[in-house]
Amino acid sequence: MQDNILKEIKNLVQGSTPQWLSIKDAVRISGLSESSIRRAISMGALKANKKGRWLMKSEWLERYLSS
């Protein structure tokens, strides 16, 4: 299952422009709960920017999931 998740994230990363993900996108891709994603952001384990809502680059999510 984790291999499928990483493959899906790599497909997103391979685009020429950085892919920004919302928390809902991260939940859909990773299979983790929304609270787990938010907790990782608040603890600093998952890098994200708050621009009205939390946004993260797909490569940041990939790095978090593979660590």
List keywords for this structure.
67 residues; Arc Repressor Mutant, subunit A; 3-stranded antiparallel β-sheet; globular
Structure description:
The protein is an alpha+beta fold and 67 residues long. The protein has one domain (2-66): Arc Repressor Mutant, subunit A (Orthogonal Bundle). The chain is 58% helix and 13% strand. It contains 4 helices and 3 strands; from the N terminus they run H-E-H-H-E-E-H. A 3-stranded antiparallel sheet has the order 1-3-2. A hairpin with a 3-residue loop joins strand 2 and strand 3. The model has no long low-confidence stretch (mean pLDDT 87).
Calculate Rg over CA atoms.
11 Å
Which secondary-structure class do the elements indicate? alpha+beta
Give the helix tally: 4
CATH class: Mainly Alpha
**Percent of residues in beta strands:** 5-15%
Would you identify the regions where 5 or more consecutive residues have pLDDT less than 50?
Answer: none
* Gap from first CA to last CA: 16 Å
- Secondary-structure arrangement, i.e. CATH architecture: Orthogonal Bundle
Overall average residue pLDDT: 87
Helical content band:
55-70%
Number of spatially distinct domains: 1
CATH topology: Arc Repressor Mutant, subunit A
Q: What pattern of helices and strands is seen along the backbone?
A: HEHHEEH
Q: What overall form do the CA principal axes indicate?
A: globular
What strand line-up does the widest sheet have? 1-3-2
Main beta sheet: 3 strands, antiparallel
Structure summary, number of beta strands: 3
Short description:
This protein has 67 residues and is an alpha+beta fold. It is 58% helix and 13% strand.
